[in-house]
Specification:
The structure is a single chain. By secondary structure, this protein is an all-alpha fold. The protein is built from 6 helices and no strands.
Length: 148
């Protein structure tokens, strides 16, 4: 495996671990600041400050000219993250972290399957085959088993 792919896999594992920690952290924050929406707001403010510090340290700046040419939906990624953070802060204490994340992952995989199939956002289309459907079915079976 090439080093960039290995680095990408390691990043995926670490970011997945952080998502598991994010849900209970934001649930705790929601209790302190009064609501899941307030927790998401604080979470994104902290993330924004962290990203500004990293961008400053790396000396990277947005290419605003190229950014202006993007379609409107290219600007909606933060909205999806905000919905996830607020939902996690609300749902994790009610469902448990594992069950919440299993259901969230099942939703992610279902949407990913669809987006791959249509080649969304300029990516190459990936057909839906029996192995991919079986993988999704196994995740859904896992959701059922975790809930029991």
């Amino acid at each position: 495996m090439n080093p960039l792919a290995l680095f990408a896999l390691a990043g995926a594992v670490v970011s997945g671990m952080f998502i598991a920690v994010q849900a209970p952290t934001n649930a705790l924050l929601a209790r302190g600041v009064g609501s899941p929406v307030n927790a998401a707001l604080v979470s994104f403010a902290v993330g924004t400050v962290a990203l500004l510090a990293v961008a400053s340290a790396l000396g990277v700046r947005p290419a605003w000219g190229a950014a202006r040419a993007l379609p409107w939906y290219a600007w909606t990624g933060g909205l999806y993250g905000a919905v996830f953070v607020a939902c996690a802060a609300f749902a994790a204490p009610r469902l448990g972290i594992t069950y919440f994340l299993m259901v969230a992952i099942a939703g992610q995989l279902a949407m990913a399957l669809f987006l791959d199939r249509i080649g969304a956002f300029g990516l190459a289309p990936v057909p839906i085959g029996p192995a991919r459907l079986a993988g999704i079915a196994l995740v859904l079976a896992g959701v059922f088993l975790v809930r029991r």
